[in-house]
Amino acid sequence: MQWILGIVLAAALFVVLKQWGRLSAEKKKAVTWKTVFIVGGVMLAFMVLTGRVHVLTAAVAGLIPLLRKLPEIARLVPTLNRFLSGGGGAGESFADGAGERQTQAPGSGMSEREACEILNVTADCTREEVVTAHRRLIQKLHPDRGGSDYLAAKINEAKSVLLRSRA
Questions:
Q1: Whole-angstrom distance, CA of residue 50 vs CA of residue 44
Q2: Measured between alpha carbons, how far is residue 86 from residues 90, 93, 125, 162 in Å?
Q3: pLDDT digits (tens, 9 = 90+) for 114-151
Q4: Neighbours of 114 (CB within 10 A)
Q5: 3-state SS record for 18-82
Q6: Domain boundaries for CATH 1.10.287.110 within the chain
Q7: Of 110, 158, 150, nearest in space to 134 by CA
Q8: According to CATH, what is the number of the domain 89-165?
Q9: How far apart are CA 134 and CA 125, in angstroms?
């Protein structure tokens, strides 16, 4: 029985190596990564099932390969993409493809148009409308109420940009 198993494994190894020789360098790299992730996943599942690794540790380890896909996911979310790419600088910027100039507050990376979009107000709004819109949004998206620090900072920045221009 052991002889048969040895012969089958040797034949399988021969077939795999023959197929490996036919692959291009890019395909070899892709196959290598897939093999590493599959073998790692099987080992991780085995260790979880035998009680050697906690389930949460295995879940975190399973998410690590997905970090390579983070830039692709960022392209799907425009706000996240703007955040990851640096978000532009202070001074003047151009609108998306329109070629019109927008002035930005000094020391701020946000234009008045962006601030109006964030707070969902018109360009000719009053100070009271800005404060009301800010209060409404910050109550929903404050970090203490389940929102994120990034969103709260953007809302506060939008408020300061709009109030600065209405002083």
A1: 10
A2: 12, 14, 29, 22
A3: 889 899 899 888 999 999 999 999 888 888 888 888 88
A4: 21
A5: HHHHHCCHHHHHHHHHHHHHHHHHHHHHHHHHCCCCCHHHHHHHHHHHHHHHHHHHHHHCHHHHH
A6: 89-165
A7: 158
A8: 1.10.287.110
A9: 13
Residue tagged 């599942």 (tokens): 45
Query: How far from the centroid of its chain's Cα atoms is residue 101's Cα?
Result: 29
Choose among 95, 85, 97: nearest CA to 116: 95
Q: What are phi and psi of 165, to 5 degrees?
A: -80, -15
Model-wide pTM > 0.85: no
Q: What is the pLDDT of residues 62-98, one digit of tens each?
A: 777 777 777 776 666 666 556 655 554 444 444 444 4
Task: Measure the CA–CA gap between 3 and 96, rounded to whole angstroms.
Answer: 70
Asked whether 94 and 104 are in contact (CB, 8 A), the reply is no
Beta bridge partners of 103: 92
130: which 2 tokens? 């800005």
Cα 144 to Cα 13, 80, 138: the distances in Å are 58, 21, 10
The structure tokens listed for 69 are: 């896909």
